Amino acid sequence: MNTDELEQLLVQQPVTLLHRLARGRVHRHFRAGKKRLIELLLQHSSQNRAGLESDLQALIGEQHARSESGSSHIHLPPTIARKKAAPRRAESESAETAVSLSEWLEGIGVPSPQPFVPDPWQTEALSAVRETDVVISVPTGSGKTYVAVEAARRAMEDNRTVIYTSPLKALSNTKYTEFSRIFGPDAVGILTGDRQENGQAPLLIMTTEILRNLLYDAASGEIDVRLDTLGLVILDESQYLADPERGVVWEETIIFCPSQARLLLLSASIGNPQDIADWLTSIRSTVCRLVRHGKRTVPLRAGYLHPNGKLTPLFKTLGIPYGHSSQLHPEAKQLFFEYEEETLPAGRPRR
Amino acid sequence: MPPSIHPVDLITALRHKHLTPAIVFLTSRRACDEAMETFDHADLVLPPARQEAIAVALERITVQHPSIAEHPLIPIVKRIGIAAHHAGHLPSWKIAIEELMRQGHLDAVFATTTLAAGVDFPARTVVITQSSIRKSRDFTDLTIGEVQQIAGRAGRRGKDHVGFAIVTPSPYIDLTVLTKGLTGQPEAIDSQFTISYPMVLNLLKAHPHEQIQGILAKSFAQFQLNQRAELLEQKLDALHVQMEPFGPRVCTDWITQWHTFDHARRHRHTRHQTHRAESPEISARLPFLTAGRVIGLSRGRGIVLRQYRSKGQKNSMLTVLRSDSAVTECPVTSVKEVYDRTYECAETPAYPWCSTDTFDRLSHHLEELPSRLPVLPILVSTGIDPLPDAIVQSLGDFPCPTCPSRPACHKDFMTASRLRQEQQRHTKSIQALRTSLWHRFQERVEVLQKFGYLTPATQLTIEGDWARLIRIDHSLLITELIRAEAFTGADPSLLAGILASLAHDDDRPGAFPRISPGLSSLLGQVRKLAESLSPYEDPPLLRADVAALVERWVADPSLTWIGLCRLTTMAEGDIYRLLARTLEFLSQVQALKSTHPGLADSASQAITLIRRGVLEELP
């Protein structure tokens, strides 16, 4: 067999076979695509041509023997063919229950503008924050900002200073612009590591580090009028408490937060908001109130887009089947199975 | 089939199903930029009306942020209505993209996952292409919280009836991570409380030493430690109940008594046996057959990758790298020679037992070995002297053999001793949980006393009083540098350069602008000091190239932003962040006005000099 013939033969083989052939011959062969793999194998053939050819023939022979005894799937060894048959059957059973693509895509569009009505949890949080500390743990995009704005407005009406902290400078800047628009530019100030504007305003936006520093300075005897009249501290993105490098700053801030000020912790969904609330109750003068819910304001659907451009729902159900991660849509399952078959190196066990 | 969908096809598919605007999360900045490049030759052009709208919107943003006026990506964004958004971009560009997205001018944004945790930036659809994320050099699976954070960007309140999270596979994606992430409960968060030097100084400034333990007890860290301690206490109570039948017998502490007796008895009866039937010549060799050692075998030579014992084998085994990068296993007995040569070998716990780099390097070394190598002389010790067993001799001293409670002790010993061990273990860990924070605090106090920031009575010294104002990373190094007068008489540019090298914690490589002799000698000094402080504080990366870059920016006011970017391969966004962080460090130094006026003055000069061009215009 000359090199061209060998190449021809290799090109005709399925990629799984090529991976098997490459095992022990080509370093990190599973990284290579079919074309590159053939190149590498040909390169290798200069070292041990005879061995490669004989192994290739043996593998092809095996392949034929299997496909004859096995099923009609020519390119797949019987073990895979059997596995593949199983989801097929499941599909026919669950065909009625699984959602179809058109159903899944239904309802895309812009809702007609409706007057804003606060959600029950928002009113609950707002009435609670008048008396006690509040921890809010709700999904992204549920309208935490509304609570922050309203709570700040009420505190400012009582002539109290409000401090709003966020973990990122970019976020602080966005909020500064947003709050200036709502409350007027004179009422809002910003303090970050490199920017200080309107530092005596009743509503101060800062990074959490700056607030921590203010609290330390106040504790060591420096007089800060803003902290004396402090009525509300809003800590946005409080899940940063678990940040390996910066989390400690949130703890320090909460520990040293003046007792007359109310704390409002806004956080994305986390697993143990009750712990945070219990902790606040244990170190502060009032009983902390926890407001949590897991329902998104805009419902979410999950889809699967195959590299060939085919779109299917990811789950059998229309929405996300919370708590049931295995309820995959049969079509998505099938497509992903095929994807893995083609991209995973042959013989590697599937998870 | 391609390993993942082509960006152009992806956008076409999304547009076709009315799933735009969309955020496409990709693994890296580079992936985002490459995805943008694929549109260069695609004819996915927006209708002129929309192009016009984008141009108008961009112009409005440019008024506020002039630095984006000539941004190289503007033409393509206008043409196709798609943009990239990642940390390599200037904040002003990111703000512009966010604004365009908010106003609904863009159909898609390619972004890295940092976006998910950052700004408020929703879309109708998010596309997820990965199940793992790069964290400090390594890829880890996305947590449930992170998947939901990403999916949370889908669906805009008031603008969408539904949001869509679409998974599209790429190599190495693990679908179960994503499905679990979408359907699961987010993880619980844990405290990451650490005690830093400035924290200790600030606490001691405000509160007397004896109150500190109470303050530390208020932390979430202690709250969670207490939760664990309470769990252990419950277990301890249960153990107490179980221990009841094993109270005092003839001797009060019968468990210890029996333990010693039993031990002594067993030792008398068992003869000393050699552990393995290995000849002294072989066992003398074993300590030398470590990873990286060159050995001679019956045919050719090899480099040891690991030594191990296997159940089925009588002898110790070796994994050896042979010529042609072959990895073979052989018993120690087949080693003919041990050569006096070793190579460095970064071991890993799985095949091929060393890192890929090492593997390639070792194979290379093996090919290059000279034909003659010095043989390692190994001394063989013959025979092991049995130790005189003191316990065996004193066996007569035990009362146990004739004790009436002997059968009971014999029977209960195993259970009782296990229970008692568990009890002791729990008691110890409860104590550790209750006091660990306090101990860590005390450790820090001792270091600060050693360096003279605190008096032996834990009062702040004059040094400590200003040092507490430096509340940033590497604070000990910075205050020690100030005390060593390293910055006295230094230019603002030198000060800024050094602080930049302290502030920069990213190890992405950048190109080297030429470093000035003054800065390089100062940097050498800093490095020396950082090394001497390494038992007390992790040394910073101290990259000379970022120091030189910032020095240039401060020293040469005529240098433009574009000129600065040309000096290095760092991305614009990274340079911006570097300068912003340097500003933060400088403003901390600036706070030392009353004690170090010269230094503070130098810092404020540096701050004014840094703030120009892009940095002045941005918040």
Could you provide a short overview of the structure?
The complex is a heterodimer of chains A (351) and B (619). Chain A is an alpha/beta fold and 351 residues long.
How is the topology of this model organized?
The complex is a heterodimer of chains A (351) and B (619).
Chain A: H1 3-12, H2 15-22, H3 34-45, H4 49-69, H5 78-94, H6 101-105, H7 120-128, E1 134-137, H8 144-157, E2 161-166, H9 169-183, E3 188-192, E4 195-197, E5 203-207, H10 208-219, H11 225-228, E6 230-235, H12 247-256, E7 262-267, H13 273-283, E8 289-292, E9 300-305, E10 311-313, H14 330-343
Parallel strand pairs in A: 1-7, 1-8, 2-5, 2-6, 3-5, 6-7
Antiparallel strand pairs in A: 3-4, 9-10
Helix pairs in contact in A: 1-3, 2-3, 5-14, 7-8, 10-12
Chain B: H1 7-16, E1 22-26, H2 29-37, H3 48-64, H4 74-80, E2 82-85, H5 91-102, E3 108-112, H6 114-117, E4 125-128, E5 132-135, E6 138-141, H7 144-151, E7 163-167, H8 175-183, H9 197-206, H10 209-216, H11 220-243, H12 254-269, H13 280-285, E8 293-297, E9 301-309, E10 316-321, E11 327-331, E12 335-342, H14 356-368, H15 390-393, H16 406-450, H17 462-467, H18 475-483, H19 492-503, H20 517-532, H21 544-555, H22 561-566, H23 572-590, H24 597-610, H25 614-617
Parallel strand pairs in B: 1-3, 1-4, 2-3, 4-7
Antiparallel strand pairs in B: 5-6, 8-9, 8-12, 9-10, 10-11
Description:
The complex is a heterodimer of chains A (351) and B (619). With 351 residues, chain A is α/β, with parallel strands linked by helices. Chain A has 3 domains: 3-69; 81-108 and 297-351, no CATH class; 120-292, P-loop containing nucleotide triphosphate hydrolases (Rossmann fold), CATH 3.40.50. Chain A has helices at 3-12, 15-22, 34-45, 49-69, 78-94, 101-105, 120-128, 144-157, 169-183, 208-219, 225-228, 247-256, 273-283, 330-343, and strands at residues 134-137, 161-166, 188-192, 195-197, 203-207, 230-235, 262-267, 289-292, 300-305, 311-313. In chain A, strand 9 (300-305) and strand 10 (311-313) form a beta hairpin. In chain A, 40% of the residues are buried. Chain B has 619 residues and is an alpha/beta fold. Chain B is 48% helix and 10% strand. Chain B has helices at 7-16, 29-37, 48-64, 74-80, 91-102, 114-117, 144-151, 175-183, 197-206, 209-216, 220-243, 254-269, 280-285, 356-368, 390-393, 406-450, 462-467, 475-483, 492-503, 517-532, 544-555, 561-566, 572-590, 597-610, 614-617, and strands at residues 22-26, 82-85, 108-112, 125-128, 132-135, 138-141, 163-167, 293-297, 301-309, 316-321, 327-331, 335-342. The longest helix of chain B is centred in the last third of the chain and has 45 residues, at 406-450. The interface between A and B is large, with 87 and 83 residues.
